[in-house]
Amino acid sequence: MPSKDASDYILRISAGPSYDPSTHKTVLVNTDEPVHISNEHCEADVWVRVKDYRGLPKNSPTDSPYFHTPQHKTDRSSITFNFTPKHSINGSDLLFGNDFDHPIRDKLPYGFNQIFWAIKQAVDPGLQKDSDADKPWFYGALLSSMNALRIGGTEEEEEEKEEPDPKSKDQDPQIHPLYLEGATASGTTIRSTHTLPTERRARRAHFLSDDFKSSFSFDAGRNYCCDFFNDAIDFNDFTVNLPVSVPILGSKIHLMEYYNGQPVRYVLREGRRGEGEGDGKVLFVVVIELVEKGEEGDGEGEEVEEEEEEGEEKQESETKDEGGRGGGYVDEGVD
Questions:
Q1: Phi then psi for 16, rounded to 5 degrees?
Q2: 97 neighbors 139 (Cβ within 8 angstroms)
Q3: Please, are residues 296 and 10 in contact by the beta-carbon 8 Å criterion?
Q4: How far apart are the C-alpha atoms of 305 and 15, rounded to whole Å?
Q5: Secondary structure of 43-84 in the HEC alphabet?
Q6: By three-state DSSP, how is residue 227 classified?
Q7: Would the pLDDT of 118 be above 80?
Q8: What residue spans define the domains of the chain?
Q9: Which residues of 102-132 are buried (b: 16+ CB within 10 A; e: fewer)?
């Protein structure tokens, strides 16, 4: 049975283009180095920041300048990404959230519906769920889920470099990336056409309307920049700080009490899991795992091992080329 003490674990975060762990790469948390993702649905770059990070790879930064900007001083985590769809996706169909491979219905705390309502207020106002399913999910439309949404230009456009306003307290050229609400290039026309509010909270509320969501399209070949951040979820001690108190549990939920060994998985996908093509419409996933102390290795063992194997294969191939096919000089010991 997994330990219920968060201090017995550290974090390992990976990202990839599918649910298959073999396609994932280690996320270098709190750095400006993204995981690049490419599949039949999109091209994307993903960054993860966690305040007071305890995890892999070893010697990862525990903090990020991101958390010292005016708008993020109280936040505990951020999943920042940009993506370019390879086919157009209706605004109602592009979803962001969590899903699981195994049931969680027997592990949910008493009063979970009240807790879920409170989480919606704190994290994602458009969040929906099927927590009783064999493969449970919690998704919201990306249009109302994202704390920051910047609509960019198309691949055909030569986007102008976005220069930060030195007078603005909301921009810091030293933080990369720092995506703010807005638009660049022809994305400004998109926002204007859809009369999108300029303030991020108002834009999230705007897209709670099914009509507004369905009238929006994520265009093939257009770049979109997003930031999903909050001050409610603390991944270091696996707690959720609710904006209101719920009966018995109060305002702080200790998730370790309900932990059944499954990782927390964030998914950007077209359509809910099990609809249409089943699992086949994933744009990318970010997996946050709890690794028991003493079993973590170096956090990059598989990648290192693969590189060593490739090196051995290359060396063996070169040896065969030189000795077996006479492709190189062979020293026969004759002066």
A1: -170, 180
A2: yes
A3: yes
A4: 19
A5: EEEEEEEECCCCECCCCCCCCCHHHHCHHHCCCCEEEEEEEE
A6: strand
A7: yes
A8: 7-302
A9: ebbeeebeeebebbbebbbebbbebbebbbe
Listed residue (105, 310, 93) closest to 214, CA to CA: 93
Q: List C-alpha distances in Å: 165 to 82, 184, 200.
A: 22, 14, 19
Q: By mean pLDDT, which of 13-22, 39-48, 253-262, 295-304 is the weakest?
A: 295-304
**Contact predicate 152/187, CB 8 Å:** yes
Q: Write the CA distances from 22 to 58, 88, 283, 309, integer angstroms.
A: 21, 28, 16, 16
Q: How far apart are CA 224 and CA 86, in angstroms?
A: 12
Single pTM value for the model: 0.84
pLDDT of 315 above 60: no
Angle at 121 between CA 285 and CA 244, to 5 degrees: 125
In the numeric block, the tokens 């309900």 are attached to 258
Q: How far is Cα 151 from Cα 182, in angstroms, rounded to an integer?
A: 7
Q: Evaluate if residue 102 carries a pLDDT over 70.
A: yes
Contact indicator for 63, 30 with CB cutoff of 8 Å: yes
Look at residues 20, 11, 95 and name the one whose alpha carbon lies nearest to residue 48.
Answer: 11
- Number of C-alpha atoms within 13 angstroms, CB side, residue 138? 19
Do residues 244 and 121 touch, judged by C-beta distance below 8 A? yes
H helix and E strand count, the chain: 6, 18
pLDDT at residue 299 in the model: 54
Give Cα separations from 279 to 20, 117, 270 (angstroms).
11, 27, 10
Percent of the chain with pLDDT over 90: 65
CA distance 51 to 43: 27
Measured from the Cβ of residue 326, the count of other Cβ atoms closer than 10 Å reads: 9
For residues 283 and 240, what is the distance between their CA atoms, to the nearest angstrom?
Answer: 27
Which of these, 292, 255, 305, 233, lies nearest to 55 by C-alpha position? 292
